[in-house]
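Sample pair:
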Amino acid sequence: MLRGTLLYLANQERIRHFVTHNRLARGSARRFVAGETLEEALQATRTLNQSGLSVSLDHLGENVSDAAEAGSAANDYILILDAIKQSSLNANISIKLTALGLDIDNAICEANVRRVLDRAKSYGIFVRVDMEGSAYTERTLEMVARLRQDYEEVGTVIQSCLYRSPKDIERLIASQTRVRLVKGAYKEPPEIAYPHKADVDRSYEQLMRQLLAHGKYPAIATHDQHMIQSARAFAADNHIDKTRFEFQMLYGIRRDLQKQLVNEGYNVRVYVPYGTQWYPYLTRRMAERPANLLFVMSNAARG
């Protein structure tokens, strides 16, 4: 019930307007969103890099309504790539296809993505194509497959909540496409997704082991200590070197665990979101599982 309520709130414009203009709410969000400007996100990246953490920068925004907005989003991503290169930061970027025009026209979207990837390729920076709701899953994977023919350093995301994910993982492993594995942050119908957390977790662990054994530098994105320990044990038992994969966590959550893993020699990347459209991002993170709301409250209380 809590998950459904939070996902409902994520799409309510009146509530979004109130929260994003409320001083207390904005202050609380800053724990988990690096800021509203690129410079604030770059400063957060510098701080994380100094602690041995790499970064994936995400300029928040999605579902643009016209070609000009999509082109502007591509320009913004290119500016981020320029800033990473100029500042010599240990960072890559995550992009959303709906921000680049997927709802408008596939050709417009792909042209925008290719502009971003051309710049990233010139700098040797990896680009992750984020996975959005299930309505976009097939189109996203089809586009990534086409892009992989021309760009080595582009990857995507798979959600363990979807029934289709094992077959998608097999195809991505076969094409040596880098995958970030997540549980899933969107409300999906039971016809296509596991409705119960235990099943989502079971699927996550199975896919995680498959990626660790056969994938190309997979990203294990979770704050679940049981899942992290399972990944570590599987890697050790199968002689999978720590350099062959990375853990990923969200900005502002489980900083203690991030530092612990780095100190133990694991690669850890922090997903750093920024921008004015932070409200739907934050509510979806809380809706992923009820424990995330407790993470937020406990982290906020610790300051």
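Residues 1-10, 299-303 have pLDDT under 50 and may be disordered.
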